Amino acid sequence: MRCERSEKKQAIMALEESLRRIKDHLDSIDKAREQAIRLSRDVIRLSSQIISSVVSGNKEEARKALEELEFKKAAFYETVRHHGELLYSGITNNTLSEYVEAKIVSKLVIEERIPGQDELEVPPVPYLQGLGDSIGELRRIVLEKVRANRLEDAWRILEIMEEVFARLYIINYPDPLVPGFRHKIDVARRLIDDTKVMLIDLTSRRDLEKALESIVRRGCGEHQQ
């Protein structure tokens, strides 16, 4: 009987020790999660600010915000990377995809290049998500170029959108592996098609106006003679 009580006590003690370790583990994750949420808000806010600055043509403002974004992103990633439950969670994918989107759009406009995954130091999934979302932001820049009557620049950006899309389109994995990616690609296709139709129409109108102006000028010249 005494032996049975001793074994039972040992079993209870082992259970308590196991639960204590689980609690310590979850406490650590919960603390990291709370910090990650705060940093995530900063990363998303700065990313949005950078894209707005780039779209509006304020490159200097974008550069200043990019410096702070790098600091916040590094702090966020350091917080989640030691916890698999957080590293592969929705909050990490969403946060880093916003970061990727801001970096790609700003690098394209300011330096005319697209940074790769290794350069941005992010996992593959948020890189693909951010690259897909960047097509929508590039369309906003196209619209700004159109508003400024810079159709050649608008066409150049459309070509970049098409190049990015062509390379993303061949990446075909199920949604559980790359959440939301195929939907982003479908949206990107529609945006590119709509943008191309718009630019073709505007370019045709501009060319027609130039042709008419040329005819009018020739007519006026002949009349004066």
TrEMBL record:
Arranged from A to Z, the UniProt key words for this protein are: Coiled coil, Magnesium, Metal-binding
Q: So where does this one cross the membrane?
A: none
Q: Which residues form a coiled coil?
A: 15-79
Q: Which InterPro entries match?
A: Translin_fam, Translin_sf
Superkingdom of origin: Archaea
The answer to keyword Coiled coil applying to this record is: yes
Q: Name one GO molecular function term.
A: sequence-specific DNA binding
Q: Where does Mg(2+) bind?
A: 137
Q: Give the PANTHER family listed for this entry.
A: TRANSLIN AND TRANSLIN ASSOCIATED PROTEIN X
| Full protein name | Haloacid dehalogenase
Organism of origin: Fervidicoccus fontis
